[in-house]
Amino acid sequence: MRLYFYCSSCQEENSFKTKAKDRFDLQKERGNFINERCRNCGTVVKRRINRVHAKPNKWLLIIGGLGGTFIALMLIFFLPLFITVFIIPAVFGIPFIAWRAEDKKASAFNKVMVSDG
Fold it and tell me: Is the CB of residue 107 less than 8 Å from the CB of residue 99?
């Protein structure tokens, strides 16, 4: 999952990857603060865990859609039409199902806050 924070100097949005599923896991992994360098101005940014937010990965939908289009074209040429009519919606539906799961993960991460104590 990719997590985002804003730089206090230039207000640029920065990101970093983590395997943490929620803020509790992120707190165990990194502590109460995130220390990252801004990619725009180079300032070291110190942010609380609660100031970090998650966004779903849009590349998953783009790559899955392109892959689905390629598979659908291959199926149209190599399978009979009556079978292709049933398979193509499933091929295009798989990337949207994967993106929805990613969106739910990001939403679950953003809903939970940790105490600063």
Answer: no
**Cβ(50)–Cβ(23) under 8 Å?**
yes
Do residues 77 and 102 share a domain? yes
pLDDT tens per residue across span 13-65? 999 998 889 999 999 999 999 999 999 999 999 999 999 999 988 887 788 88
- Which amino acid type is present at position 83? I
Quote the mean pLDDT of the chain: 87
The answer to whether residues 43 and 66 belong to one domain is no
C-alpha–C-alpha distance, residues 30 and 18, integer Å: 10
Total number of domains in the chain: 2
21 in Cβ contact with 54 (< 8 Å)? no
Of 45, 2, 8, 52, which Cα lies nearest the Cα of 27?
52
